Amino acid sequence: MSPAPAVTFDDVQAAAKRIHGVAHRTPVVTSATLNALVGAEVFLKCENFQRVGAFKFRGAYNAISQLSPEQLVRGVAAYSSGNHAQAVALACRQAGATALILMPADTPASKIAATKGYGAEVVTYDRYTQDRVALGNQLAADRGLTLIPPYEHPHVIAGQGTAALELLDDTGPLDALLVPVGGGGLMAGSATAAKAINPGIRMIGVEPEHGDDTKRSLQAGQRVRIPVARTIADGQAADIPGELTFSINRRLVDDIALVSDDEIRAAMRLAFERLKIVIEPSGASALAALMAERISPLPARVGVIISGGNVDAHRFTQLLADPMA
Amino acid sequence: MSPAPAVTFDDVQAAAKRIHGVAHRTPVVTSATLNALVGAEVFLKCENFQRVGAFKFRGAYNAISQLSPEQLVRGVAAYSSGNHAQAVALACRQAGATALILMPADTPASKIAATKGYGAEVVTYDRYTQDRVALGNQLAADRGLTLIPPYEHPHVIAGQGTAALELLDDTGPLDALLVPVGGGGLMAGSATAAKAINPGIRMIGVEPEHGDDTKRSLQAGQRVRIPVARTIADGQAADIPGELTFSINRRLVDDIALVSDDEIRAAMRLAFERLKIVIEPSGASALAALMAERISPLPARVGVIISGGNVDAHRFTQLLADPMA
Q1: How high is the mean pLDDT of chain A?
Q2: Which of B55, B273, B278 to mutate to test the interface with A (most CBs of A within 10 A)?
Q3: How far apart are CA B57 and CA B51, in angstroms?
C-alpha cells in the first residue's frame, strides 16, 4: 500500500475556495494565429495577469491564510529574489500578518521596492557569502516567525494547483498540459489537479536546456543535483528538485521538454507582437516548447501555463535585442 | 428641426449583431495599482486584443458585410499605412471579397506582409509625390472596386461604436469615457453609443499635443486644418477632422485633452510593467491623459478605450529607450 499523497485533489479544491475573491481568476487566452502556427488548439492560462504578476500568489495566500491567529500576529518570513517575495508580502497584507522577506543584496531595486510597497520588511544578504536557508531559519527562530517556503510545502503546492483547476474548468478536457518547472511546485499542484479531473491528460514539464534537474532526476528515479548554467529563465534556475515536489512529480509527470534561451525569446516576442501580452522568460518556457516543436506527439488540444509576466521594460528590450543578455 | 443624425444608436446596435462571433468581444481590464495611481475607478476596453490588433476591424467588417453580392465579387479597396489596411484585408477574407490595399512604399515590411497574409493585394505608392486619395479613387473606378474609407462612412463609424457599447454593457454607468481621436471615427461611434445609453456621460477625446486638429476645430466651430507635427502616435496624426465625423463629434464630444509623446511613453510603460499588456502609442493616449492628470474634474468611474496594440518589439524598445525616437 502506498502512503497517502502529501497533496490531494481535495486540498486543491479547498485552496480554490480560500483564494476565491482574493486571487484573480486569470483569463484563458486563445489565438487563431498561434493555433495555425503550432498546428494545435492552444489554451494559454495567463498567470502573468495574476496578482503580483505571477502564479506564486496562489500558493502563498493558500498557506498564509491557514496560519493560526497566533502565527499571524508573530509574522511570516520568506526568502526569495523573485516572484515569491512579492507574493508572500501581498498575501501577508491580505491576511493581516507582518512579512519579513530575505532578498539578495543585488536584487533589482524595483523588485525590492515592489516588495516593500506591499508592506513587507526587506532584509538583504550577500548571496555569495551567506546561506539564505540558514539565515532565514535563524531569523525565523529568533523572531518566532513562520517561514513560507517557495515550493516545499503542501499548502503552497495545493494553492499553485488552482491555476490548472480553473483552466480545465474553462476549457473542458485537454490532451496535454504544459507547465514550466523550477522547484516543481507549480507542476506538482497542476498535476494533482489535472490528473484527478482528467486521468488521461499528459502532464509535460518544461525546463531550460541547461537547468534540467527535474528531467535528469526523473530519468534517474531520484533527485539529482546539477550545476545550473546561466539562463534567461531565472525563475527556473533550480539545481535540484524539491523533496516533496519530486515525490509528487515522479508519480504524475509524463515527460519533460527542454528549451533554449533563444526559443524562450521567440515565444516572448510572439506573445508581445501577436498576443499583445507580456511574459517573463520563465513564464514563456512552456509556450516556447510548443512553438519549437519539442512536444511529440503533438496534442490536439493543449493547455499552456504562462506562469508570470514580471520583466521590466528595460530588461525586456535587452533580452530581445541582445542574444547574449 | 435638426436633420436625422448620420449614425444612430440603432445603427451601432445593428453593427453589434453583424460583428458578433466574427470580431472578438474584447476584455475590460481593471487594476488596483492603476486605480490607486490615478485616484479613480478605471475600466480599460482592450481593443489591442481585437482581431488585427486594433478596433479598426469592427468598422471595416460592419461596412464590408453590408455590401451587395455584386460588390463583394468585384472587390474592395482601401488606402492605409496602418491598422485599417489589415482590418479591411481580414474583413474581406471573412466576407468572401477580394481586397486591394494601397500602402505607402515606405510602410514597414512587417505591416505589408501582415496585410498580404490576410489575402489582400497590396499596391504601393510614393507618399511624397502621389496623392493617395486620387490614386485610390482612380484604382477603384478602373476596377469597379468599392472603396472603404478609414472613418468617413456611417457603417464604419457605427462599427467602431460597438466597443463602447460592449464596455458600458460590462461596466454599467460611467462618469466619463476617454477615447483616442485621429480621424474621429472611433470617437463618433463611441459617443453615439455612450450618450444614448448614458446621456450624462462625459465624452472626452484625446489627441497628441501637436496633432490637435479636432480640439481646434471644436473651439472654432468648424473644421480646421493644421500642420501635423511629428508624434509617436502615428495613428492620430490627422491634419483635419473628417466632415462626417466632425458633424457627429461637435454635437456629442464634451472636451478634448492633449498629451505629450513622453506622457504616452509613460502610459505604454505602465501598461507593460504593471498590466502586462502591449499598447501602441496611439492606443495609449487616452490612458496617458488620465495618468498625466489632464482630465478635470477627475471622474470617479472612468472608461478608457485602448484602441490598439500594433507595435513590434523592436519599435517598442526604440520608443521606450530613446526619447527622440
Answers
A1: 94
A2: B273
A3: 6
Under DSSP, the state recorded for A9 is: H
Task: Check: CB of residue A156 under 8 Å from CB of residue A184.
Answer: no
Cell numbers describing residue A208: 531550460
Written as nine digits, the cell of A103 is: 532578498
What residues of A are in the B interface, CB distance below 8 Å? 27, 48-49, 53, 269, 272-273, 276-279, 309, 312-314, 316-317, 320-321
| H helix runs in chain A, sequence order | 9-19, 32-38, 56-64, 69-74, 83-95, 109-117, 132-143, 154-160, 162-171, 185-197, 213-220, 243-252, 261-270, 285-291, 313-321
Q: Is residue B115's pLDDT more than 70?
A: yes
For chain B, report the end-to-end CA distance as a whole number of angstroms.
Answer: 50
Which of B49, B53, B273 is opposite residue A312, by nearest beta carbon? B273
Mutate to test the interface with B, among A276, A277, A322 (most CBs of B within 10 A): A276
Place of cell 480554490: A16
pLDDT band at B325 (very low <50, low <70, confident <90, very high): low
> Which residue among A53, A269, A320 places its CB closest to the CB of B276?
A53
Q: Which residues of A are catalytic?
A: 56, 81, 207, 211, 213, 307
Q: How far is B311 from chain A (nearest CA, A)?
A: 7
Among candidates A273, A278, A321 on the partner chain, residue whose Cβ is nearest the Cβ of B276: A278
B30 CB burial (10 A radius; 0-12, 13-18, 19+): middle
Q: With 0-12 CB in 10 A as exposed, 13-18 as middle and 19+ as buried, what is A284?
A: buried
- Domains of chain A with CATH codes: 9-55+155-321 (3.40.50.1100), 57-152 (3.40.50.1100)
Q: Please report which residue ranges of A144-176 form alpha helices under DSSP H.
A: 154-160, 162-171
Which cell numbers in the block locate residue B219? 473651439
Q: Please, what is the Cα angle at B261 between B256 and B263, to 5 degrees?
A: 75
pTM of the full structure: 0.93
Query: What's the whole-number mean pLDDT along residues A199-207?
Result: 97
Q: Which chain B residues have any C-beta within 8 angstroms of a chain A C-beta? A: 27, 48-49, 53, 269, 272-273, 276-279, 309, 312-314, 316-317, 320-321
ipTM: 0.91
CB B43 within 8 A of CB B174: yes
Predicted pLDDT of residue B134: 87
Q: What is the signed CA dihedral for A122, A125, A127, A132, rounded to 10 degrees?
A: -80
A with B: how many residue pairs have Cβ under 8 Å apart? 46
Is B111 in contact with B120 (CB distance < 8 Å)?
Answer: no
Lowest mean pLDDT across A6-20, A217-231, B1-15: B1-15
Question: Nearest chain A Cα to B30, which residue?
Answer: A49
What confidence score (pLDDT) does residue B323 get?
56
Contact assignment for A309 to B27 by CB distance below 8 Å: no
- What are the catalytic residues of B? 56, 81, 207, 211, 213, 307
